[in-house]
Amino acid sequence: MSLPGEVVEWFSTAEHWRGDFGVPHRLAEHALMSLAATVTAMVMGLPLGVWLGHRGRGGAVAINLTNVGRAVPSLAILALVQQAIGLSGWPGFGARPAFVALVALAVPPLVTNAYVGLRGVDRDVVEAAQGMGMTGPELLRRVELPIALPLIMAGIRTSAVQVVATATLAAVTAWGGLGRFIVDGFGQQDNAQIVAGALLVGLLALVTESILARVQRIMVSQGLRAGQPRVEEALTVG
Amino acid sequence: MRWDWVRDHGDDIFAATRQHVELTLLAVAIGLLVAFPLGLAARRWRRTEGPILGLAGALFTIPSLALFALLVPFTGLSRTTAEIGLVGYTLLILVRNVVAGLDGVPDEVREAAHGMGYRPLDQLLRVELPLALPVIVAGIRIATVTTIGLVTVTGLIGQGGLGALIIEGINRDFRTPLVVGSVCSVALAVAADVALAGAARLCAPWSRR
To answer: Where are the domains of chain A?
Structure first.
């Protein structure tokens, strides 16, 4: 049988949709893990980046964080965290190290983009707001954050997509998720399973990206939609 | 850390590093060859810019393991599979920076060159490209560092490199090759970044501030 036929057959096999090794369970694992890691990283990274950007401090650190993060291979982080804390007998073998590694990878683009976004706010606008009598918190909430939002959202998109991608690699270090289909497919030389897993992962990443792009479009002020910065975004890939 | 393992496997570590460098160089070089005309096309015909960047962006969004996995049934566990994926990931970064670099050339400069009688190709090669170089090199740096990280994943499709050491460490639950592979990969990325920054300063002294 041809490969597309085999893949269709793989997807239409009832067994692949049932139980702890089925598509729904793996998809839920992958999505929940990614969501938890991204939200945790946002809680850690966004306030830091916003604060640094608002105060205009620590620029070198904030900007280079992403460069450093990019230089460290995600596979290496997964494996090293697994080695460091994975064997301490916690429940849910593999899940905790995967979570820690994903959060570590997701934080840098969030900090960098929030920092760059806030620093990028036109000084004249800030001075005008101060001249109108805005205090620090007001300035942050009503001027700086709305203007920085496109870049902050770009950071969230970058991080979320990278987390979905890296969660796939976590299958190599003994966690579940959709990567299991790919890694097990390699092991069993089962092309249909490999392609099915890859399609599911690719689809999840594209859906994640397009949902966040839509959220961004809704949240960002109309007046800011033109002239979005293109090169300053902290691009990473997992 | 088992230093005796490191001592005994010096040749393997060196070979893995060399493979890693080769895979990266090839990917970035091919990526540039593909991205440059795409960037020029996106600028020449502005209507193509959206689709070109959109397609490169979608490719960039696909997780690396999934992209390699999709290619394996067609091109096998081969270097071709690895390179197609790696080149694909460089495109978004490189095309964006080629476009942004050329967009950054001031109109006055363009007009002056035109007035001096530069023909389009000459103007591109001798006026616009040198001025766009710093931004393009910034893209090459990001693409190179990203590729070095991704090459560790190609270890999973049997392409050697430092990823093979990391995977050996994972599979044997043996920390030494894991740490060696990771540290060498990071060192390689930092070295490449510094080297490219230095090269850019040498090639484009006018960009020094």
So the answer is: 3-224
The residue among A55, A53, A153, A163 whose CA lies nearest residue A100 is: A163
Buried b (16+ CB within 10 A) or exposed e, B84-120: bbbbbbbbbbbbbbbbbbbeebeeeebeebeeeebee
pLDDT in tens, B139-173: 999 999 999 999 999 999 989 899 999 999 888 88
Question: How far is the alpha carbon of A131 from chain B, nearest alpha carbon, in Å?
Answer: 33
Q: What pTM does this model have? A: 0.88
Q: What kind of fold does domain A3-224 have according to CATH?
A: MetI-like fold (1.10.3720)
Alpha carbons A88 and A180: distance in angstroms, whole number: 23
The two tokens of residue A180 are: 């299991």
Euclidean distance between CA atoms A132 and B149, whole angstroms? 48
Most B-contacting residue of A188, A211, A228, A231 (CB-CB within 10 A), to test interface:
A231
> Reduced to 3 DSSP states, what percent helix, strand and coil does chain B have, rounded to the nearest 5?
90, 0, 10
Domains of chain B: 10-202 (1.10.3720.10)
Spatial distance between the Cα atoms of B18 and A219, rounded to a whole number of angstroms? 47
The encoded tokens of residue B87 equal: 């080149």
Interface list for B 11-30 with A (CB within 8 A): none
Q: What ipTM was predicted for this assembly?
A: 0.85
B166 in A contact zone (CB under 8 Å): yes
Rounded CA-CA distance A28/B93 in Å is 31
CA nearest neighbour of B68 among A170, A5, A210, A238: A238
H helices of chain A, in order, are: 3-12, 23-55, 59-71, 74-85, 95-119, 123-131, 136-139, 145-169, 179-188, 191-219
Mean pLDDT per segment of 10 residues, for chain B of length 209 residues? 87 93 97 96 92 92 93 91 95 94 92 93 92 92 94 91 92 89 94 92 74
Rg, Å, chain B Cα set: 20
